[in-house]
Amino acid sequence: MAKLSKETKQRLQTVFQAGQFVIRWGFIPTVLYLGFARGGDPGMPEPNILRCAVSVGPSLCVSVHLCVCLSVFGLAI
């Protein structure tokens, strides 16, 4: 295995941390955007934010709140 300098290791660590941040906070918004942009199946009603919020209800709010709290305290699920 190649030896890496301390500076290179720190840069790689920063890159990996940035990648983790992008994946953690960007995945669900990307999926939601694609779902709204492409729409539903033919014959299905158009998706909208209100219908989505009512259908998932409190369970999603609790899940999002739990994930945010855990990430603030540096814990993983």
TrEMBL record:
Top-level division of the source organism's lineage: Eukaryota
A GO biological process held by the record: positive regulation of protein targeting to mitochondrion
Listed transmembrane segments: 21-37, 57-76
Membrane association type: Single-pass membrane protein
GO CC terms of this entry: mitochondrial outer membrane translocase complex
Family statement: Belongs to the Tom7 family.
Name this protein carries in UniProt: Mitochondrial import receptor subunit TOM7 homolog
Upper taxonomic lineage: Eukaryota, Metazoa, Chordata, Craniata, Vertebrata
